[in-house]
Design goal:
about 80 residues; Helicase, Ruva Protein, domain 3; mainly alpha; 3 helices; about 80% helix
Length: about 80
């Protein structure tokens, strides 16, 4: 896989994740994917880099989506208990 092909695959990862997670800002998804992609810059074997980037990004985004609703809900429960 050439460098251009790899970048094209990473762009496709961004597009897929934007479709998969409509509640997350496309800008945030793109930033996360590019940040994760940078982790693989020094790797010699490049064939699976887009796949690994997508897997890591899905994991991070999914974890973020689980944590945020819980954190948003917590203060409301505390407020209702205080009344």
């Amino acid at each position: 896989m050439t460098g251009d092909e790899e970048l094209l695959h990473v762009e496709r990862v961004i597009t897929r994740l934007i479709s998969r997670y409509p509640a997350v800002s496309p800008t945030e998804i793109e930033a996360r994917v590019r940040k994760i992609y940078q982790r693989f810059v020094g790797c010699r074997i490049r064939d699976f880099v887009p796949l690994l980037v997508e897997k890591a990004a899905r994991h991070e985004i999914s974890n973020r989506m689980i944590v945020i609703p819980i954190l948003d809900e917590r203060p409301a429960k505390l407020n209702s208990l205080e009344l």
